[in-house]
Design goal:
The chain is an alpha/beta fold and 320 residues long. The chain has a single domain, classed as TIM Barrel, CATH 3.20.20. 39% of the residues lie in helices and 18% in strands. The protein has eleven helices and eleven strands. Strand 4, helix 5 and strand 5 form a beta-alpha-beta unit. Helix 3 runs parallel beside helix 4 and helix 10 crosses helix 11. The chain is globular and about 45 Å long. The chain starts with a strand and ends with a strand.
């Protein structure tokens, strides 16, 4: 039985004990395909409140939004406060319930490199100074990481910190990226991965299976592509439909049919058979646990997903 290098196993091997990724969502952060810099409205499937549990706790009164050209950030003190409050809440919970004593800060919601350099440096420095934090994982896009930020993250690596950039690739097909309103093309992704890894920063690629008009062969080709470009970790999850998104409108109008559990599990089996054993499998499931979920209904309970996926993987000799 081949045992997959899950993120838990990776951290246990790397640090000798359990490490918990703590999700952080900060007021004012957005994406260039939301704020009008490249497009408006964001990805057609995106409702950050359903994807990021910390986000719903944030006071959204201020209209200030992060971007590269923002001259002064009036939200910085509040962002620092939110960072510390969210960290301590999660750290205390996992320490008391599971005995976890080491943590990775996970800047999760929106594009977490899409802000002025001084703001990012202040937040990253503060995150790495929190008790028992061994590193950071930062969610972003291939078009939103400036060289100065890469160099800063490379300096943290030299200081012994575990630094990951999580690039939302989703698909390597430009027609899919256009349909989902990503507002960038796939060209340049390979070079971005190479530049990132050259500084010792680990790359985690995010892929979504079940995007509109994609076939299973297209989804597996996206996987083959990111593997060829060079990655350290990967997240794969099914596309699900939540209220308030443009994908929800497509679904209600009969223009989108969600992926089935059987198709998704077949793809996961084939994917894990392809992925080399030294690549960290950070995720193979996703869902929404409230009434915002429209479809597919099997995405309501990730525990049910994982039991089904583990059973399917064991059938081909893979232990997740």
């Amino acid at each position: 039985m081949r045992v997959v290098l899950s993120v838990g196993r990776y951290f246990k091997k790397r640090f000798g004990l359990r490490v918990r990724k703590i999700p952080i969502s900060l007021q004012g952060f957005t994406c260039p395909n939301i704020d009008g810099f490249l497009a408006k409205g964001g990805c057609i499937y995106c409702d950050n409140e359903s994807f990021s549990p910390s986000l719903v706790k944030i006071d959204k009164i201020s209209q200030t939004k992060m971007n590269f050209s923002l001259q002064h950030n009036p939200l910085l003190d509040r962002q620092i406060q939110q960072l510390e409050e969210q960290f301590h809440w999660h750290a205390d919970f996992h320490q008391e319930k599971f005995g976890v004593s080491k943590y990775m800060i996970y800047f999760q919601s929106y594009t977490n490199t899409y802000a002025p350099f001084d703001t990012l440096k202040t937040l990253y420095d503060r995150a790495l100074s929190l008790p028992n934090v061994v590193g950071m994982s930062i969610g972003t896009r291939i078009d939103s990481v400036q060289d100065s930020v890469l160099e800063l993250l490379g300096e943290y690596v030299k200081q012994g910190k575990e630094i990951w950039l999580e690039y939302g690739i989703q698909s390597v097909y430009n027609e899919t990226l256009a349909l989902t309103n990503r507002a960038h093309k796939i060209e340049g992704a390979k070079e971005m991965f190479e530049k990132t890894r050259a500084l010792g920063i680990k790359v985690c690629a995010h892929l979504i299976y079940g995007l509109p008009k994609e076939t299973p062969d297209m989804m597996l080709h996206s996987l083959d592509s990111v593997l060829e470009w060079g990655i350290d970790g990967i997240k794969i999850h099914p596309l699900y439909v939540v209220n308030g998104t443009r994908l929800a409108k497509m679904y209600k109008e009969g223009q989108y049919e969600p992926i089935t559990m059987e198709c998704f599990s077949d793809l996961i089996v084939k994917s894990l058979q392809k992925i080399p054993p030294d690549i960290v499998i950070q995720r193979i499931s996703a869902g929404a646990h409230d009434d915002t979920l429209l479809a597919p209904k099997w995405c309501f309970d990730k525990n049910i997903q994982m039991r089904y996926l583990r059973d399917r993987l064991r059938e081909v000799g893979i232990e997740y």
